Amino acid sequence: MEPLAFVEILGRHNDVQARHPVYRWPARVGRGYDADVILDDPFVAPRHLGIEPVADGRFKVSDLQTVNGISLPPAAERVAQADVGPDDVVRLGRTQIRIRPPSYAVRPEAQLRAAALYRRPAAFAVAAAMLLILTVWSAWVGTTSRDEWASLLFPSIITVIAVGAWISVWSLVSRTVGGRANFAAHGFVACAVLAASAVAGTLFEYLAFGFNERWLDYAGTAALAALAGLMLYRHLRLNSRAPRRTLGFIAACVVAAGFGIAAGVERAAETRREGMQRYDHALKAPAFLWVSGVTPEAFLAAGENLRHKADALARAGD
């Protein structure tokens, strides 16, 4: 006996979880064992939905006087009955279904493609190695301890733990909402962007030192914010099928809020350090200073001139 229609059980993203053939009209959908399509949903009645064919490959769905009723997403209003087509979704309880005739034309087969580079474990391993090397290098440049091995090992361990936890959380979310962990892809995104952030931060730090321009520090902060937004956007893209603009807007808002708070804290700290000398955490070679500074003779002369002014003011006060 040929099926008269198919009832598709849909997942979170309207992907088909199961297909149930229908062999008689009217068909009944519910939780009871006498239903034509049985749903394991406690919010569905034993006999919840009736289905009958109408013209042009459409179907009439009817609420069989249930407590929770039926609706047609994205609308949430309950309906007693409605005519639906093969692409319309019907919600009953916490389950979404779609009804299609056997003659429904499916899309052509998708072409198999090789996995994108960032999804491959090898790419994740390379990005992780680069991040670890940059972490060790940054710790070595800034260390002032005689016990250099401890100074190099501790930041590396902290980086591995923190980045590993970050990747694991995103992979868990990806597994929960999409059915795939995408661990290598999340790992590559995190490690590659963090490595790029380390390079960009160092580059702008040396540029600000070399040209003696404070605005380059702010440009470096903006570059780090852009990279953080890119990382968050790529993580969201791996976990959600929402429009790209929506995900980009969410990432931009989150990063703007985070960096705004950080900027406020930094500004408050600078206010407390008003009048104190600023210094870098790592000394830089004079060869990286690309602008002409004040000669030692001019610096000493300016100091002597300032001393004379101070003495004159002291004598005037007496």
Briefly summarize what is shown:
This protein has 318 residues and is of the alpha+beta class. The chain has six helices and eleven strands.
Can you walk through the features of this model?
It is a single chain. With 318 residues, the protein is an alpha+beta fold. The protein folds into two domains: 5-100, Tumour Suppressor Smad4, CATH 2.60.200.20; 117-271, no CATH class. 50% of the residues lie in helices and 14% in strands. The protein is built from six helices and eleven strands. Strands 2-1-11-10-7-8 form a six-stranded antiparallel sheet, with no helix packed on it. A five-stranded mixed sheet has the order 4-3-5-6-9, with no helix packed on it. A hairpin with a 6-residue loop joins strand 7 and strand 8. Helix 1 (121-142) runs antiparallel to helix 2 (148-178), helix 2 (148-178) packs across helix 3 (183-211) and helix 3 packs antiparallel against helix 4. The longest helix is centred in the middle third of the chain and has 31 residues, at 148-178. The model has no long low-confidence stretch (mean pLDDT 87).
